[in-house]
# Entry
Amino acid sequence: MGNSERFQKGAAVIKKLFGREPQPGSMQADFLDITVENLFGDIWTRPGLAIEERSMITLSALTVLGRENEIKIHLHGAKNLGIPREKIEEIMIHLAHYGGWPVAVSGLKLVEQVYSK
Amino acid sequence: MGNSERFQKGAAVIKKLFGREPQPGSMQADFLDITVENLFGDIWTRPGLAIEERSMITLSALTVLGRENEIKIHLHGAKNLGIPREKIEEIMIHLAHYGGWPVAVSGLKLVEQVYSK
Amino acid sequence: MGNSERFQKGAAVIKKLFGREPQPGSMQADFLDITVENLFGDIWTRPGLAIEERSMITLSALTVLGRENEIKIHLHGAKNLGIPREKIEEIMIHLAHYGGWPVAVSGLKLVEQVYSK
Amino acid sequence: MGNSERFQKGAAVIKKLFGREPQPGSMQADFLDITVENLFGDIWTRPGLAIEERSMITLSALTVLGRENEIKIHLHGAKNLGIPREKIEEIMIHLAHYGGWPVAVSGLKLVEQVYSK
Amino acid sequence: MGNSERFQKGAAVIKKLFGREPQPGSMQADFLDITVENLFGDIWTRPGLAIEERSMITLSALTVLGRENEIKIHLHGAKNLGIPREKIEEIMIHLAHYGGWPVAVSGLKLVEQVYSK
Amino acid sequence: MGNSERFQKGAAVIKKLFGREPQPGSMQADFLDITVENLFGDIWTRPGLAIEERSMITLSALTVLGRENEIKIHLHGAKNLGIPREKIEEIMIHLAHYGGWPVAVSGLKLVEQVYSK
# Structure
């Protein structure tokens, strides 16, 4: 795993968002480095949006695209950041009207799974 | 056009968001009523999210879905609400990584069109 | 749960389509009300399309969007309305050409699951 | 252009649906043959769905997928088959709730363009 | 099942790609015939692209569309053709940037499942 | 504009693919840097796929996603790399069956626009 400054910055965001270090073996090795450096290190650390805003925007995108595995991961992130369940549910009720009812039905089930634990 | 309480509530949100009344003739008549009553009257007026948050969430959804006509409309809304251009651009740069590069390329062009006027 | 006239109208469509009352606890409480009132009460009760036509159109949309959980729910609805399996299969064979082969492959598997019981 | 029996069958459906023969030069030559033979000759001629049902199902799929060029083509087909404007509009109002509001907004604009001529 | 020349051509491609004959009962009977004749017999046998190229292009499409069941099937095909795991992984890392990060995360997990056996 | 090593590597790929330098003003300034460094510098330069393979894979993804503006840009790239028109057309005919007919119809029109000049 990378040790670059960009990797360290990305790992710090991942720690803050998900409460854990990047996990070797959790995905293909090169893609893990790219994810930590390029996505979390370069993008999530940019000023202009608070991490809570990035979390909500990411969930909005994932919800209307129907990416259920990643919705779950980012719901854990949102919960970890202290974003209230009611706020996330409200986002999904809102998005039923922009991505279609089914994406909200699925999204709200995942909220129940992640937040009720 | 409807005169129900729900319609009046919806029309008030539309006024606040887009700076104008619902426009008869702008879309099929029944669908205009449903849009004002059900979408803006029932949903956009719910507590739990500020109108600026609903604007950003809506733009996030539209951007990754590539709905260009509606992106333009809601960029006018975001500008009208006073959301800074830099914040919207940051959302789109972020979303390049969740919806694919092309949705950000298109979204940022529309920001230029709407905000530079 | 709501007791409004719109809720009652929606509940009646749901009974006709799925053979059961709206189920409290089946989804987030506010979203259940909105689903019964706005989606089933306001939209599914509109004249201009028979309920069987709405069922087939809904299945067409869900199929090409790949929304598998909702496809299953609406296949139960179609079966309950007496729409023959052969007709639903024909829709999916047709849609392979508009939404891509994979959506029909998945859709036809779900038909087998729901209709063969 | 093909002269096979499958081509002839496909050409007959195209004539019935769009009121014209397949047009050489309207698309890449091989793809035109495949479209006439495989899509219209093999699929649109299958029993089990009336041509009006295939038209409505096709429009439902194209609408939620946001394929605007093809929506226009198939709106001409629907009009040519005598499907009333009100019925197509009702389909799109319905689909706003399954594919998201923007697909209905765009779809209804195209109905206005095609049916008001 | 069909015995036409087109069926035989399609069955030969399926054998080469997946290492087995078309399997009656694996999908709805008519759709199996159409899949063997129209998709594999007519399209996959066309000159202009090697079967390995068709395999990689198909996987690219399925990956960005998020069609997980079909990705698995075509990963078995790719493996059977001898396309190296590293090449498929590289395709998915690349596509993270065109279809969004989640499609690559899911795709790479499926590569691990299929290629590590 | 950036002057980093990653930027230089990305600019070299862009030159090879599109026949020109990255163009300041062609997109939002930060996003141009990220595009050159992260997408072209880090990803397109990775070993494991030839640039012609990356071009075809990118076109496959863009085609099934219906991203027309970017399809045009990457068709110029494909033409510039010397990939024959027939090969690109074959990809789109193939993809009609995985992303639905409309994406191939649109894609083939864009091929005509870009390659016939």
